[in-house]
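ok so i was messing around last nite and threw this chain in just to see what happens. nothing serious, just curious
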Amino acid sequence: MKMILVPSSWILSSYVFVSFLLLISFGITYGTETDIFCLKSIKNSIQDPNNYLTSSWNFNNKTEGFICRFNGVECWHPDENKVLNLKLSNMGLKGQFPRGIINCSSMTGLDLSINDLSGTIPRDISKLLVYVTSLDLSSNEFSGEIPDSLANCTYLNTLKLSQNQLTGQIPLRLGTLDRIKTFDVSNNLLTGQVPNFTAGNVEVNYANNQGLCGQPSLGVCKATESSKSNTAVIAGAAVGAVTLAALGLGVFMFFFVRRGAYRKKEEDPEGNKWARSLKGTKGIKVRCILMHRWHIWLHLEKLFIYVIRFICLL
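result:
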């Protein structure tokens, strides 16, 4: 019986090849399971009155790549159940933003425009759409504020949120998106300072948001009503403090003068001893009293000037 010696290099190559096949098969299986679950959860979480999804999204088929034939679904490869883009525009879909979309872990594009979706945009949207490069939620009924976490979607090239009911300020951190090329938030109810994009040539659209400012076409941002109110409160408090201090000083001076007069009357009931006692010291005592009162009024004047300057700075 002859022994056939197999070179060790062949054994190593075979081992690497088998490991590679196992890795690939595991990746495909994982991608298939999660992406199929992603589409199932989307279908179950939103209303489809026009049956665009119901008529096409049939999960009974188990062949590889079957989800790639669904309405609005684009795959990385026609024979691989891994979602690349979801284009569900103008289908009359209703409901809230589908959180199950997190399971389409390799998706780079999401288009839910021209539907009847409502509610708020999820605050953790950057965790739901990790690799998204294009996000279009325009022409819906989304309300609330634009989530700050969108600034963590660092691959974004296109962000369209126009024609909704979004309110509040646009997160200034969105200006740090260094790949952004198109940014459209027109026809909302947004207010405040707009972001300063550092990416260079960015096509922006802020039209029909009456409260936006910070660009030549929008005007210079002015102090908000709340800041004006706070300034008025501070100014009023400062004036009140000065008035109270002046009244306190006046009362003090009144009793100080009366007390001095009373003591003089007690010490010299006849009215002539006091005059004699001032002989030699009268000038010194009078000057001391006048200087003391002068210093008090001088400090009060300085305090009043400081308060006026403070109010002017506000």
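not much to say yet. Residues 182 and 203 are 5 Å apart (CA to CA).
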